[in-house]
Amino acid sequence: MLREVTPDDSRDIQRINNTELNKGCTLADTTSYLTTLLKDPHQHVLRVSVDPLTDQVLAYLHAELLTFTYTQPMFIITTLAVSGAYDYDKHASALLTSLINLARRRRMTTVRLGFIPDPATTAFWTQAGFIPQSHGLWDCTI
């Protein structure tokens, strides 16, 4: 099940950040960062995939609105992380589809990946339609 992030998700997101992304962030900092990001839902898209029985966060996505003077606005995915005990493709696909649908509703034509995928996830991003661009960025035309 997908839903918007709430401040109550801080502990699960911190766990995913520390175990899957090796970020080493404290719970207090994670809560503070999330609280700040959640104040601007037009600029920041924060969604989670949760276990419907326990409401435990299994994966999350953070994307940010990019605006330029020379091209249409787009979302840039800054984080898409899935807890290692769960199916990456299943949860990542659901979160990505949700973001792409939001981008289409906002009449965007591109979603950008703001990080270089690791070798284990490169096939996922390629199958999802992302194409490497300059400077390590990957774009998906929607």
From TrEMBL:
Lineage, top-rank taxon, reads Bacteria
Keyword Transferase recorded:
yes
Q: Which UniProt keywords apply?
A: Transferase
Q: Which Gene3D superfamilies match?
A: 3.40.630.30
Molecular function GO labels:
transferase activity
Protein's UniProt name: GNAT family acetyltransferase
Q: Which species is the source of this protein?
A: Ligilactobacillus saerimneri 30a
